[in-house]
C-alpha cells in the first residue's frame, strides 16, 4: 500500500512538472519531455517494485540501485524547481497587476497567460532555477555520500568510577542500509571505526531502511568487530517496519548483543558499567498494522538486576525519550533518529526541530548528558544539507 501511495505522489508530481515545462519550453522539445521523464523514472519504479517482492537478484539489484537513486535525485530537483517557478509566477503576477490595469474579461486573462514576455521571463527563471536546483542536489549528494565527520568528545562526570576513566566508545546511528546505501559505503564506515580502536561499539538503531534482509551488508562489514568490552545495539523505528527478528538474530550471530529493554554489565579495571537499552515506541506497532514485537520503552524492565554500584549509560534511539532514559539512572544517553535535520535549508537552523528540542549534538540538564548523533545514512531522499553524516567517538573522563 505504501508503495502505491508513494508511486501515486511521484506520478502526480511529475505530471505537474511536465505540464509546467511544456508551457514554457520551446515547442521542439515538448514531444521529448514524456520520454525523458519516463527514462528517469522507470528504473526507479522497477527497482522498488522488485525490492518489495524480496526476490531481486543481487547483481540486478546492484545495477538498478544507482539508476533508482538518480530518480530520487530528480524528485528533489523537481520539488525545488517547481518551488522556484511558483515564486516566479507570483512575481510576474504582482508586476503585471502593478503596471497594467486590471484585466476584466476571460479573453484578456487568457491573452495574459500566453503573453510572450511572460513566457520568456518564466523560461529564463526555469533555466536559472534548474541550474540552481542541480547544484543544490549535487551538493546534497556529495555531503550525504562523502566521508563522515568524526566527532571526538571528552565527557567528564564527577561520579565516574576511576576504573572507567579513559574508556573509549564509538557510536554509530541511523545507517539505513538499503536502496540508498550499499555495501561499499558500509565498508567505508567499518574502516573509519577500525581507526578509532574503541573499547565499546554502540549502535543506536535504524540499521535498515525498511526490510530486515537489508541488514546483510552491515553484518558482513561489522560482524565480530574487535571491541574489547563488546558490541551492543538497540533497534530504531525503521527496524520495526516489518518483523525485526531476523535483524535481532543476525546481530546476535555477528557478535552484537541487542538491548531491547535490557542491560549488559561490562567490567573494566574493577569498575562496572551498565549499558542499558530501551526499546523504540514503534515496537508495538510495526508498519502501522497493529503488529506487536515488544512493549515499547520500559526503563523499569531494562534496569532490573543492575548492581547499585554500576555506572549507567543508556541507548535510546529517539532523543525525545531522554526523560525515560534518565529514569534508568543513566548519566549519559546516546540517541540518533533526527539525522540532524538531514536537509537544512536555513543555515544554523535544524529542520528536525519539529521532532523536539534535541536535534543534534550535546545537551546537559541537571548533571545528565545526552548526545544526539546526526547518523550516517539517509532516508526519503539521498541528500544531506547542513547535516553531514557523523561517526561519534566519546572518551569518558572522571572529573
The first-level CATH class name of the largest domain:
Alpha Beta
The strands making up the biggest β-sheet line up spatially as 1-12-2-3-4-5
Average residue pLDDT? 83
Could you spell the SSE succession in H and E letters? HHHHHEEHEHEHEEEHEHEEEE
**CATH architecture of the largest domain, please?**
4-Layer Sandwich
Tell me the structural class: alpha/beta
Low-confidence spans? 102-113
CATH superfamily of the largest domain: Metallo-dependent phosphatases
Number of domain modules = 2
Strand count, sense and barrel status of the largest sheet are: 6 strands, mixed
CATH topology of the largest domain: Purple Acid Phosphatase, chain A, domain 2
Number of strand segments: 12
**Total number of helices:** 10
Radius of gyration: 25 Å
State which percent range the strand residues make up. 15-25%
Helix content: 40-55%
